[in-house]
Amino acid sequence: MSIVTNQVTGGFAGGNVTQSAKSTLSDMNSFLLMFTTQLKYQDPSNPLESYELASQLAQFSTVEKLTQLNENVKLQQTQLASINSAQREDMIGKEVVGSDNKIHLADGQCSKASYQLGSAAQQVKVVVRDAAGQAVRTMDLGSLQAGRYDLQWDGRNDAGEMMRNGSYQFSVEAVDANGNVVDASTSVSGKVYAFRMVEGVPYLVLDSQDGVTLAIGSVTEVHQEAKESILSLENPIISLS
Description:
Shape: elongated
CATH architecture of the largest domain: Sandwich
Mean pLDDT: 77
Helix content: 10-25%
């Protein structure tokens, strides 16, 4: 970095540099140049005290260490991003399961999804909504025991009409014999078709180009195509991209 000065006056904190000069100190050489120029042009009748010089040196040392720390953090982020990218590419073609409630309808076929009941429920209701959030199908399933169940939707609305291809979502409402809410979680699954970045967040695209998009951070299981489980996570995958 070059510093162009026509005149430097006063102390380091109170002095000024011409408009064409750079005020940011990027390295020790820049600091030393400014520091020696300051000493050269200081007022002989009011020289800097030794404690002022020591204070300036200490301040620069602190800034220099913080700059080095910032560079190291950036390097680590780059390395982690590279590793994470390789892991994502390795998932293409594998079956994944993730915590989500989005489903995709294509020619009357609904993408794979399921729900988990934490305890026995006296009344279970599954509601399918369109992209605008409007309920299009409500399915009363009666009583169910605790456990995992696959979503069964034939793609029709409550009037029996086939719904258009596109994205939908579903929710589960369950209560026990005493009317208490039963915990119910939802998940989706499918084969990883591709990756898609949405506002800087990486998503897996399942089954087809227009399939369900699942945030990588929501993935809980990864399987080989033959359904043999190779990874099961208690916590979602953490993504630094």
